[in-house]
Write a structure and sequence with these properties.
The chain is α+β, with helices and mostly antiparallel strands. It has 20 helices and 15 strands. It binds protoporphyrin IX containing FE. This is Cytochrome P450.
């Protein structure tokens, strides 16, 4: 249900206030290009500007942004919402590149921080300056190559096989929510590796977080959120209390782990899988404790990392499988790619999908499975887990396209729309074509995986400005490698072991996202699963 309906009672007040504010406010410096005001996007109204449009459900808003992008191409448009600083909607990758290169000029600013403060406090997503640097450093240490290897070789195979067992137990019987399955994998991974805690997707904390994320996202659409939350905000406040309490538990448990830390026993035997995982478990929270000290800030930082790592990746996998259900030939190609990889191994491939636990998933990397990686990238393009970004100018500036932005102007870009731009992605931008992320080159030997006619196939890199799904510049996503490592194991393992069928009524294309800071699928992804009778039958 759209915010227009939900907040219908407040709409009239909003309009009245908007008119009043417009009437009494003195115009500041204007946003211009070539000395003229920018064009307004479709459906801009007198006085209220885009304010009413922004009260619609986020799913409808995404379509509106897509329409703006179609009508404006790379042209920057004006955005205006009563009570907010003047803004622009940028579409041109050149402008985005400029934003990424000038991180200090385009910050989250008060506009974003005020709205996400209750949920993230001083966590990395909200932090600037030293707070940001320290948290980023702790994250870089956590996501180092050695830890990622423990993730791909030990932790992920373990959690993946637990999920495969769950899918086996449901096969041919019940409908399964794949979103929940993926969320469970990413929650367990982040819980164990980052915090040394056992966590699950349906913990009270996780449910509260999902709710609070939705309300926080609505704050970006509703300029009167402070007033409306006086009447509707009690569940939000309860959820935030549960979340903060959980953050506090993470920190308390980390402090206890630290105090109880025993010197590693002197042993000559090589470390086994369990000991490797135990050794790195909780390494993020320990680095954060060391770097930040103050326990409230550490708790904020921990909760922010949790959200950044598990929700985005779990949701990206969900949309990937939604697209795979619509494109079965892609499933056949993934299976063929796995078959090809396994056939090069000394051990023959498992002939029964119940052997998923024994699938050598740690061999599955973006380099060894380029087509699978391209499938993941194509899903990220069409369904970016963070579909909007907002920044605020900290000084007067001029964008590369000549748009003059006074200090405090708000910049918005919609990845959902930009990643469907015909100018950037070609005539089939709105459609599914994972091959757009692949390149084939001549030549025997070396790395790369067999393409057509013995040619080698690689994943094609795209610039952050064209494909901003992981952000760019100094604040680019720290977890990109982690997300890709997870995806490139989970996708082929599930596809190898199971046949999937849509488990919802209505059209195949009917799934949508609920309002949130990220892109959760509303109602999850219900599927019927069957164990594949003979893995490799269609290769
Ligand atoms: C498909 C999965 C993912 C996507 C699409 C994604 C996307 C993004 C985006 C767009 C940002 C910029 C957000 C902003 O500041 O407004 C970001 C930042 C960040 N991401 Fe990811 N992310 C993913 C997975 C991960 C994972 C697995 C981690 C691991 C913990 C992670 C950690 C972070 C961190 C720490 C930041 C903040 C960086 C900073 O401000 O310096 N992300 N991510």
């Amino acid at each position: 249900m759209g915010l227009v309906v939900e907040y219908g009672n407040y709409l009239l007040i909003a309009v009245a206030l908007a008119i009043l504010i417009r009437a009494v406010s003195r115009p500041g410096k204007a946003i211009t290009r070539n000395g003229k005001p920018l064009r307004n996007p479709p459906n801009t109204l007198p006085l209220v500007g885009n304010g009413i449009k922004f009260l619609q459900s986020r799913w409808d808003l995404l379509s509106w942004f897509e329409q703006c992008q179609r009508e404006f191409g790379y042209e920057t448009a004006a955005l205006s919402v009563p009570t907010l600083p003047p803004g622009v909607l940028i579409h041109d990758p050149k402008n985005l590149e400029f934003v990424f290169k000038n991180e200090g000029l385009f910050t989250k600013g008060d506009f974003v921080k005020r709205r996400s403060w209750d949920l993230f406090g001083n966590g990395i997503i909200n932090a600037d300056g030293d707070f940001w640097k320290l948290q980023r450093k702790a994250g870089v240490a956590f996501l180092n190559t050695a830890n990622l290897r423990v993730l791909t070789d030990v932790a992920l195979p373990q959690y993946l096989s637990e999920s495969a067992e769950y899918l086996n137990s449901k096969a041919g019987k019940d409908i399964v929510d794949l979103q929940h399955v993926f969320h469970e994998i990413t929650t367990k991974l982040m819980g164990k590796m980052a915090y040394n805690m056992e966590m699950h997707a349906n913990d009270e904390f996780s449910l509260s977080f999902d709710y609070a994320s939705g309300i926080t996202a609505e704050r970006f659409q509703n300029p009167l959120w402070r007033i409306t939350e006086l009447f509707t905000g009690s569940k939000f406040r309860r959820s935030v209390a549960i979340i903060k309490n959980f953050g506090h538990r993470i920190v308390t448990s980390a402090v206890k782990d630290r105090n109880e830390q025993k010197p590693s026993p002197e042993t000559t035997s090589p470390p086994n899988d369990d000991s490797k995982l135990d050794e790195i478990s909780g390494s993020l929270i320990q680095s954060l404790l060391e770097a930040l000290g103050d326990e409230t800030t550490v708790a904020d930082a921990a909760l922010t990392y949790l959200s950044a790592g598990r929700d985005t990746t779990g949701q990206a996998l969900t949309w990937t499988f939604y697209l795979l259900l619509q494109h079965p030939t892609a499933i056949t190609k993934i299976r063929a790619e796995v078959q090809h990889l396994l056939s090069q191994q000394p051990q023959p491939p498992p002939t029964s999908p119940t052997a998923i636990p024994s699938l050598p998933t740690s061999l599955f990397t973006p380099l060894s499975l380029p087509y699978t990686t391209a499938v993941f990238h194509e899903a990220l393009r069409l369904f970016p887990p963070i579909p909007f970004e907002i920044r605020q100018c900290q000084a007067d500036t001029v964008l590369p396209d000549g748009t003059v932005l006074p200090r405090h102007s708000v910049l918005v870009w919609c990845l959902w729309a930009m990643q469907r731009s015909v100018g950037t992605w070609g005539g089939d931008a709105g459609g599914w074509r994972p091959e757009r992320f692949l390149v084939e080159v001549e030549g025997e030997g070396g790395e790369g995986v067999g393409g057509e006619g013995g040619r080698k196939r690689f994943v094609l890199g795209k610039s952050a400005a064209e494909f901003p799904v992981f952000y760019g510049g100094a604040r680019a996503c720290l977890g990109r490698k982690m997300a890709e490592a997870i995806a490139v194991q989970v996708i082929p393992a599930v596809v190898w072991g199971f046949d999937l069928e849509k488990g919802w009524d209505g059209p195949m294309e009917g799934r949508r996202s609920q309002t949130s800071l990220t892109l959760p699928m509303e109602g999850g992804l219900p599927v019927r699963v069957r164990v594949r009778e003979r893995a490799g039958r269609d290769e």
